[in-house]
Specification:
The chain is of the alpha+beta class and about 400 residues long. The protein has 13 helices and 13 strands.
C-alpha cells in the first residue's frame, strides 16, 4: 500500500497547478441503460442518464488513477466517488435516446464535461484517509532567568522547536511561522495563548493551518533540592497545550506534561527540562490529532431561505445527498415557511462547501450565498423555470 500511495502522490504533484478557477475538464461521450419498469419510461430515462454519467466518471477516474489503487480502495471509491457521480459532472447534454429490446430497456447517450481535477483531489483524500493536517504551533515560553520568547516571536522557543521537530519527523506539515506572523493580529494571538478557541481558530485559518497548537511553557528552579546537588541546579518545567481545529474552533487535544533536569547552569537546565516535557507532548499530540482530526468529518449548518415550497426544499436535500461532492450525510433539522435548517456532514470546510454549491448548475434552483462563518452558510434558493429535456 505504501508503494502505491507514494506513486499516487507523485502523480498528483504533476497536476499541482490545477485550481478551481482553471480546473482540468475531460469531455466524455458514453452510454447508459436502464430497465423500463411498470411502463415508466420517464423514470427509466432518468436512471439511464445517471448510469451514463457514472460511466463517464468511471472512465476519467480509471484514466488518472492506477488500476491497483482503484482495486485496493474499491469500496471507498464506490462510496465517495461513483455514488456521487453527478457531483463530478460540470454539465452534460443528451445526444441520443430511445427504447430498446421491444420497450423493455431505455438507452441514453450523453456528452459530459467531467471534473478531472476534483476526482484527483478527492482520490488523494481517500488514499490518505484522515491524513495528517497542516499544523501551526504558538507557545509562549519562560525559562529560568530569561525573558519570555516564542508565541508572538518569530524565533521559536524550545517548546515550539521541539514539538515542531518531533511531529515533522512523524510526517506532519507546518505552516511557515515567519510568513504567518504577517497575518497575525497581536490581540488575537494573546487571546489564543490564553486558550480562546475562536481566536486560535482565526489565527490558524489565516495562516493556512488546519490545526493550531497553542500553549505555555515555563521552567523554574527547584531550590529545595539544590542543597543535595553539590552546586548543580535542579530545574522543573511545565508545558501545557491545546490543539484546535481551525475550521470550527473545536478543541481536539488538551494536555499538560512536566520535565526535570539537573545542570550547573540554570538556563541550560531549564531548556533541557522544557525539551523533555515537549517531547512527551509531541508524541501524544501526534497520535491524538490523527485520531480526532477528521478531514471528512466537518459539520456545516445551512440556513436556507427562499424555499418557496416544500418540494423545492426537498430537492435541495436530495441534491446535497446525491450531487454535491464531499457530502457524507445530510440531516434535515427543521423547515418553517420558506426557511429551513440543514446540517451537512462533509469532508469540506464551509468555504469549500460554499464553492461547490456555487460551482454546480442545479436543474431546479439556483443558489446565492448570503454570508458564511466557520461552520455555517446562509443561503437563498431561487426556483428555475423548466428547461428543455435534452440539456443540463
Amino acid at each position: 500500500m505504501n508503494k502505491t500511495l507514494t506513486s499516487f502522490l507523485a502523480v498528483l504533484l504533476l497536476f499541482s497547478g490545477l485550481t478551481v478557477a482553471q480546473e482540468a475538464i475531460q469531455t466524455i461521450t458514453t452510454d447508459g441503460t436502464a430497465s423500463v419498469l411498470n411502463s415508466d419510461k420517464a423514470q427509466a430515462r432518468d436512471v439511464a442518464t445517471q448510469d451514463a454519467l457514472r460511466n463517464a466518471v468511471e472512465q476519467v477516474t480509471g484514466a488518472v488513477i492506477s488500476s491497483n489503487t482503484l482495486v485496493e480502495n474499491a469500496m471507498v471509491v464506490e462510496d465517495n466517488i461513483y455514488s456521487k457521480a453527478k457531483g463530478y459532472v460540470k454539465s452534460y447534454s443528451i445526444i441520443s435516446e430511445g427504447e430498446a429490446d421491444n420497450g423493455q430497456t431505455y438507452n441514453v447517450k450523453v456528452k459530459a464535461l467531467v471534473r478531472e481535477g476534483a476526482i484527483k483531489e478527492d482520490m488523494a483524500d481517500i488514499i490518505r484517509g484522515a491524513g495528517n493536517p497542516k499544523l501551526m504551533v504558538l507557545i509562549t515560553e519562560s525559562n529560568v532567568g530569561s525573558s519570555d520568547i516564542g508565541g508572538l516571536d518569530v524565533n521559536m522557543g524550545t517548546a515550539e522547536n521541539t514539538i515542531t521537530e518531533v511531529m515533522r519527523n512523524k510526517g506532519f506539515d507546518f505552516v511557515d511561522k515567519e510568513t504567518a506572523e504577517k497575518n497575525i493580529r497581536r490581540d488575537k494571538a494573546l487571546a489564543a495563548l490564553e486558550g480562546d478557541a475562536q481566536a486560535a481558530a482565526y489565527i490558524g485559518e489565516r495562516a493556512g493551518a488546519e490545526v493550531i497548537i497553542t500553549g505555555k511553557a515555563f521552567a523554574k528552579e527547584a531550590t529545595a533540592a539544590n542543597d543535595m546537588l553539590g552546586g548543580m541546579k535542579s530545574i522543573q518545567a511545565t508545558v501545557s497545550v491545546k490543539a484546535f481545529n481551525t475550521d470550527d474552533g473545536r478543541i481536539l487535544v488538551s494536555k499538560v506534561e512536566t520535565g526535570r533536569a539537573v545542570h550547573i547552569e540554570e538556563i541550560t537546565g531549564g531548556t533541557k527540562a522544557i525539551e523533555q516535557a515537549s517531547q512527551k507532548l509531541a508524541d501524544y499530540l501526534a497520535e491524538e490529532i490523527v485520531k480526532k482530526f477528521a478531514r471528512g468529518g466537518n459539520t456545516v449548518t445551512l440556513n436556507v431561505t427562499g424555499a418557496s415550497n416544500y418540494d423545492l426544499y426537498q430537492e435541495l436535500i436530495n441534491v446535497l445527498k446525491y450531487e454535491v461532492r464531499g457530502v457524507k450525510a445530510v440531516n434535515d433539522r427543521e423547515i418553517t415557511g420558506n426557511t429551513g435548517l440543514v446540517e451537512v456532514e462533509t469532508k469540506f470546510n464551509s468555504s469549500q462547501l460554499a464553492q461547490e454549491l456555487l460551482y454546480k448548475n442545479f436543474a431546479k434552483f439556483s443558489v446565492k450565498i448570503l454570508s458564511r462563518t466557520a461552520n455555517r452558510i446562509n443561503l437563498r434558493l431561487a426556483a428555475k423555470k423548466a428547461r428543455p429535456a435534452n440539456s443540463q
